[in-house]
Amino acid sequence: MKNSDKVTEIVQQLGVQARKASRALMGVSTDQKNQALHAMANALEKHTPEIKKQNALDVADGKEKGLSSAMVDRLVLNDERMSAMIQGLRDIAELPDPVGNIRSSWKKENGLILEKRSVPIGVIGMIYESRPNVTADAAALCLKASNAIILRGGSEALRSNQAIADALQEGGREAGLPEHVIQLIPISDRDAVTALITMDQYVDVIIPRGGEGLIRAVAENATVPVLKHYKGVCHVYVDRVADAQKAWSIVENAKCQRPGVCNAAETMLVHSEIAASWLPEMADILESRGVELRGDDRAREWVPSMKPATEEDWYTEYLDMILSVKIVDDIYEAIDHIHHYGSGHSDAIVTEVDENKAIFGRMVDSAAVYINASTRFTDGAEFGMGAEIGISTDRLHARGPVALEELTTYKYVVTGDGQIK
Amino acid sequence: MKNSDKVTEIVQQLGVQARKASRALMGVSTDQKNQALHAMANALEKHTPEIKKQNALDVADGKEKGLSSAMVDRLVLNDERMSAMIQGLRDIAELPDPVGNIRSSWKKENGLILEKRSVPIGVIGMIYESRPNVTADAAALCLKASNAIILRGGSEALRSNQAIADALQEGGREAGLPEHVIQLIPISDRDAVTALITMDQYVDVIIPRGGEGLIRAVAENATVPVLKHYKGVCHVYVDRVADAQKAWSIVENAKCQRPGVCNAAETMLVHSEIAASWLPEMADILESRGVELRGDDRAREWVPSMKPATEEDWYTEYLDMILSVKIVDDIYEAIDHIHHYGSGHSDAIVTEVDENKAIFGRMVDSAAVYINASTRFTDGAEFGMGAEIGISTDRLHARGPVALEELTTYKYVVTGDGQIK
């Protein structure tokens, strides 16, 4: 037997178990799920020393293997992060159960009563990179929506993830959950990912979280549907008639408040008629914050300190204190730029013109479109949806924050009294 | 240049044009879309002689190539079918516009107003087999939801489809629609399908309609998300305490009313305690209708005329006057059977026990779950959703009938007054 066959067999076994668990979860009550989440939080508390011990081994190995300091930082589980993880489970227990909601219901002339009910998606395959807290966060969200989960974390965090998963499973057992609701792929072999993402009969959706390379590889090779979050090339467009102060503060916030995240702005588009009066002071503000500006020729006429932007810049998610700047002649040029170079994540307009608010809101084809507000609000908690498992830049099923409701699907329950066609 | 490269280039060009058209459609009003649908209906009327002429060529070729008589029948466009197609466009014009609906909206403490708005999916790739009326039906539904469509019909219907698409495009031009909203792949080369289903940057979803082989091939090779309808292995479970008359009529209807469609029943599950009193008469009714029964050993004790069912039978979508019959000892055995062998399409229980209605409604994991009604109701029109483009047995985005609302997605429009994070 080839090694890849053995790996496939192991992963398939997890799939069989997960499908069985997902069916059993359809009979588990809200109370039982919430009790399990608290029991899992308790188990994580109890096993914190062991989890930290395993994490220290991962961290030591990571350093030895030459992981970057940023990677090592993401890997570390200190007391603060453990507490946040534990509190996260308790918070999810407090959220409303998304399963069983009647999304709509109606009665037909023949007397049939139709209900469109929220139901679990089924089995979710979660593929992620170094942060071990994702193990608990993702498992808890999936459980709350009555989904079984198969977790596949980064190989550099395998021992940490295993220790966390063990504690979660212990909590689940104590609360009387069905077996195999939460499973972690116990091997770091890459063939395990291939097996997971092609196991249509047992896995209903793959959610990859990590760098673009990981996500692209998963999307290209998966036969299971994938809920993707590629990247956030977000724009702020400052319109011809805009409140200068609002525009300065929105751009500054969208770029600087946390530049390393997907909803931070990467490109500023400025209407040519407001450039003279508004752009130089904006540049001063950003440069004083340490932002490197890269402009097109027209922007550089107003702010000669800008570096020239290349074609590549417009496509780039810097995740850093860099902003590309382009002058446009009207709102349609701005929208065309956003559609051509953007990633459909979060894009904002700053304008005082009602017509342009409506045009931008209607025409811009992004998961979140902002009118006079910072792009930084695209987030499950900020939207009032509670914790999220990621932000989808896909168009089907879920767009924007993927929180509890997005981890459900629906079915029709049709009740009659003997109706035939 | 290889032929496959040329094909890819042609299809990519359609993709570029479709994406542009889909952006332009975001600015097209409901009235304009409805006028275009009527103009398309008029153009189909006007060009009926030409369409029938092209269709006659397709039919003659099909016969010469030895297409089965069923295939030839599906291919034929007679006056009745032309009228139905034309009326279909007018009916879709009358349906409410699904785009722009506010699915929900709320205000955050910081004053931000969030709206979750229905928006078009974007570009839809439709792959279908012989029936040429799908060209008009699918194009009209997609247009009504402001999507651009790229059509790829069966090669045996290429001239018919082209003639229909020409008429639709003429109607669109007359009504001032953006160009390239409706496009048909003008070549029957198989590489065109490969190009279409891997063109992520230009196509947002593929909807295949046809046999299981077609759908499986598309699903396995696509990188674009696919909305699938595999098959309907539908069940009727007759519970221990059931109204005998209702149960007879529901099973008869689910099996016999139109056996060749996906929501027809293929398997009947009967509680062991009702079998003696109920099953023999059911068998008489079905056999008198010409249904061949294939039973497990316990069913054959009550109805010796049944053929023995093989393991394969439980998985089979007969699409014919054949029904497999199994005796079960309780509702859970019925549900397990449905989950193991079913296709998650439409499954029914006949019972007078409220608890069992609730259990079946909750636990059965199918797109449509029926309580005391025939499975034959799973259909967009029957559900009150209007015309449908297909029935999804997938779990994400759309489950069950895919009608206008399912051809939309959503985005968040967030309106503020300078809010920053």
Largest interface: A-B, 69 and 68 residues
CATH fold-level topology of the largest domain in chain A: Aldehyde Dehydrogenase, Chain A, domain 1
Q: Give the C-alpha Rg of chain A.
A: 24 Å
Annotated CATH architecture of the largest domain in chain A: 3-Layer(aba) Sandwich
How big a fraction of the residues of chain A is strand?
15-25%
Query: How would you characterize the largest beta sheet of chain A?
Result: 7 strands, parallel
Q: Total number of β-strand segments of chain A?
A: 16
Globular, elongated, flat, extended or rod-shaped: what is the shape of chain A?
globular
Report the CATH C-level class of the largest domain in chain A.
Alpha Beta
Order of strands side by side in the largest beta sheet of chain A?
10-9-11-8-7-12-13
Provide the helix percentage of chain A: 40-55%
Uncertain regions spanning at least 5 consecutive residues of chain A: none
Oligomer: homodimer
Helix/strand/pairing category of chain A = alpha/beta
Question: CATH homologous superfamily of the largest domain in chain A, by name?
Answer: Aldehyde Dehydrogenase, Chain A, domain 1
Distance between the amino and carboxyl termini of chain A: 54 Å
Query: How many H/I helical runs of chain A?
Result: 15
Task: Give the tally of structural domains of chain A.
Answer: 2
**Overall mean pLDDT of chain A:** 96
